[in-house]
Amino acid sequence: MDTVLIVSNDKINNAICKAHLIPKYKGIEMYSGVQALGFLKSNPLPDLILMDLDMPGMSGLDVLKVLKQGEQTKDIPVIFTISESLDMGIIHNLYLQGATEIVTKPVTEIQLLKRIEYQFQIKHLKEEVSRLESLLKESPALDA
């Protein structure tokens, strides 16, 4: 079962997002960027991170920068939840820093599930391409 790490200081938002994920995905809730980074150091990595941009202490953007610098975490897709009134420059910067998707709050169930589903489809296709490339490298050369 694919795992989604939900990172937001809004406990109600976390609970709603987690409820939307069940039963198709496993949701793990974290309430700050610092807590999420600590979790990632000592637990199996999630398949996707759903993160709020605005959090006290360490913003979602700060967490994203750390994730993209880490060898183990750089390829984890990160979907941001943002307020609708956010400046386009900030949204542009999120994409430049490596955000995979951006959704505005309040997030609807269908919107959230579709975005996550697309990311997992991409992830699984990349894994299949890697597997096939490995098989191709291992197989003897074909004579034409």
Give me the side-by-side strand order of the main sheet.
Answer: 2-1-3-4-5
**N- to C-terminal separation?**
42 Å
Flag low-confidence runs: none
Number of domains: 1
CATH topology: Rossmann fold
In what range is the share of β-strand residues?
Answer: 15-25%
Number of helices: 5
**Structural Rg:** 17 Å
What is the name of the CATH superfamily?
Answer: Response regulator
Main β-sheet description:
5 strands, parallel
Structural class: alpha/beta
The count of strands amounts to 5
- Shape verdict: globular
By CATH reckoning, the class would read: Alpha Beta
Q: Mean pLDDT across all residues, rounded? A: 91
* SSE ordering: EHEHEHEHEH
**Per CATH, which architecture?**
3-Layer(aba) Sandwich
> Helicity level, as a percent range?
40-55%
Attribute tags:
144 residues, alpha/beta, Rossmann fold, 5-stranded parallel sheet, 18% strand
Give structural notes:
By secondary structure, the protein is of the alpha/beta class. The chain has a single domain, classed as Response regulator (Rossmann fold), CATH 3.40.50. The chain has five helices and five strands. It has helices at 11-21, 33-42, 60-69, 88-97, 109-138, and strands spanning 3-7, 26-30, 48-52, 78-83, 101-105. It has a five-stranded parallel beta sheet with strand order 2-1-3-4-5, with helices on both faces. Strand 3 (48-52), helix 3 and strand 4 form a beta-alpha-beta unit. Helix 2 (33-42) runs parallel beside helix 3.
